[in-house]
From TrEMBL:
<dbReference type="GO" id="GO:0008270">
    <property type="term" value="F:zinc ion binding"/>
</dbReference>
<feature type="binding site">
    <location>
        <position position="129"/>
    </location>
    <ligand>
        <name>NAD(+)</name>
    </ligand>
</feature>
<feature type="binding site">
    <location>
        <position position="259"/>
    </location>
    <ligand>
        <name>Zn(2+)</name>
    </ligand>
</feature>
<feature type="binding site">
    <location>
        <position position="328"/>
    </location>
    <ligand>
        <name>substrate</name>
    </ligand>
</feature>
<feature type="binding site">
    <location>
        <position position="361"/>
    </location>
    <ligand>
        <name>substrate</name>
    </ligand>
</feature>
<keyword id="KW-0520">NAD</keyword>
<keyword id="KW-0560">Oxidoreductase</keyword>
<dbReference type="GO" id="GO:0005829">
    <property type="term" value="C:cytosol"/>
</dbReference>
<feature type="binding site">
    <location>
        <position position="237"/>
    </location>
    <ligand>
        <name>substrate</name>
    </ligand>
</feature>
<keyword id="KW-0028">Amino-acid biosynthesis</keyword>
<feature type="binding site">
    <location>
        <position position="191"/>
    </location>
    <ligand>
        <name>NAD(+)</name>
    </ligand>
</feature>
<comment type="function">
    <text>Catalyzes the sequential NAD-dependent oxidations of L-histidinol to L-histidinaldehyde and then to L-histidine.</text>
</comment>
<feature type="binding site">
    <location>
        <position position="259"/>
    </location>
    <ligand>
        <name>substrate</name>
    </ligand>
</feature>
<dbReference type="GO" id="GO:0004399">
    <property type="term" value="F:histidinol dehydrogenase activity"/>
</dbReference>
<feature type="binding site">
    <location>
        <position position="361"/>
    </location>
    <ligand>
        <name>Zn(2+)</name>
    </ligand>
</feature>
<feature type="binding site">
    <location>
        <position position="214"/>
    </location>
    <ligand>
        <name>NAD(+)</name>
    </ligand>
</feature>
<keyword id="KW-0368">Histidine biosynthesis</keyword>
């Protein structure tokens, strides 16, 4: 990996380079995606099934688009029992973590005759997009569905692309069943996102769409935002490792590669105060790459967006991490808990040498759907809050309003909104 001495100029250049990975930069695909979305909105099932045959090479129609209970049972029988047990343990951890996020409605009643509050209501219908085809991402299924179930969503509708044989990956189906999906449909791509957003004869419209996907899925979610809510426009995966001279170079190298293997746009960055550690990590990375299965992707990913940055102080290193605002941050310092208090921007923070990033991807419980491309400066991980909405509650007795109505009317008239003023005055006319 390239080793760079960190200064203000190099930091600016690297940040600019990382921003090239933003899905919003792929405007050349936007027209195609909009055509698909518009076609499904207008022609519904007809367009949905045609695009599925065109892109996924699978024949789907109204009679088979929804996955049946028999198919789910058949899928579960195909899954390795050991993997099934691991998934159940992971589910329990994810559920326990997200149950700590549950919000309650609250009401504050005062002796003066006023009551204010906030009513928490779960979303009625949520759509979950899960990448499919040959690949299986059961962890993504669990991470998207379980928080919705914990929040109390009434209906969870999952869509995922079929293979050429028209079938859904059995591990994906098993995860969906275990997590609590109410309906599963064998469609994917921008056309599936449009179906969830606008509804078709076969697929019901939802209130919100969550879940990862390729650039077409990301842009489709962007195109339907406003008609429905979405979680985020996810970019390529990324990890930053913050380390001092005491870190284990082999651990740091392994953790960098755990994200670099996702795809050629994935980012893996080590920020350290030690030139010696930087050189050792670079050597360990080279050794690992030679023997790992996704060598070609790893090499391109590191060539494109892999960096080892050597800072002259821990404060400078922390400032750089906060500027990057990484999706995943690992802290390998002498006192990671103290270092963590200085971190302002990161999607998920992993503390110490035995808390590597895959722990969060699969098992520990916190959500692995995280803000990317610097959006950790203002976005949070997917959680229960993404599946609820809040309503303000206001109650005033006659006596309480009588004390306030003249002030309200004066405020309204200052804005030349006389009907507003009249609305409170009319209650106290002689």
């Amino acid at each position: 990996m390239r080793i760079i001495t960190l200064d203000e100029k190099t930091r600016e250049n690297i940040l600019a380079d990382l921003l090239k990975r933003d899905p919003n930069n792929y405007s050349s695909y936007a027209g195609t995606v909009q055509e698909i979305v518009d076609a499904v909105k207008e022609k519904k099932d007809e367009a949905l099934f045609a695009y599925t045959e065109r892109f996924d090479k699978a024949h789907v129609d109204a009679s088979n688009v929804r996955v049946t209970e028999e198919e789910i049972k058949e899928a579960m029988d195909q899954v390795d029992p050991k993997l099934l047990e691991v998934m159940k343990t992971s589910m329990a951890n994810i559920r326990a973590y997200h149950e700590m996020q549950i919000r309650r409605s609250w009401f504050d009643s005062k002796p003066d005759g006023t009551l204010l509050g906030q009513k928490i209501t779960a979303l009625e219908r949520v759509g979950v997009y899960v990448p499919g085809g040959k690949a299986a991402y059961p962890s993504s299924v669990l991470m998207n569905i379980i928080p919705a179930k914990v929040a109390g969503v009434d209906k969870i509708v999952m869509v995922t692309p079929p293979g050429k044989d028209g079938k859904v990956n059995p591990v994906t189906l098993t995860a969906a069943h275990l997590a609590g999906a109410d309906e599963v449909y064998r469609v994917g791509g921008a056309q599936a996102v449009a179906a969830l957003a606008f509804g078709t004869e076969s697929i019901p419209r939802v209130n919100k769409i969550v879940g990862p996907g390729n650039i077409f899925v990301a842009l489709a979610k962007k195109a339907v935002y406003g008609h429905v809510s979405i979680d985020s426009i996810a970019g390529p995966s990324e990890v930053t490792v913050l380390a001092d001279e005491g870190a284990d170079p082999r651990f740091a190298a392994a953790d960098l590669l755990s994200q670099a293997e996702h795809d050629e746009l994935a980012s893996a960055i080590l920020v350290t105060t030690s030139r010696e550690l930087a050189e050792k990590v670079s050597e360990e990375v080279d050794r690992f790459v030679e023997k790992l299965s996704r060598k070609e992707i790893l090499e391109k990913s590191l060539e494109n967006y892999g960096y080892i940055l050597v800072a002259d102080s821990m404060d400078a290193a922390v400032d750089t991490v906060n500027a990057i605002a990484p999706e995943h941050l690992e802290i390998l310092t002498a006192n990671p808990f103290e270092t963590m208090t200085k971190i302002r921007n990161a999607g998920a923070i992993f503390l110490g040498e035995y808390s590597s990033e895959p722990l969060g991807d699969y098992y520990a419980g916190p959500n692995h759907v995280l803000p990317t491309n610097g959006t950790a400066k203002f976005f949070s991980p997917l959680g229960v809050d993404d599946f609820i909405k809040k309503s303000s509650i206001v109650y005033y007795s006659r006596e309480a309003l009588e004390k306030a109505y003249k002030d309200i009317a004066a405020f309204a008239e200052a804005e030349h909104l006389t009907a507003h003023a009249n609305s409170v005055r009319v209650r106290f006319e002689d």
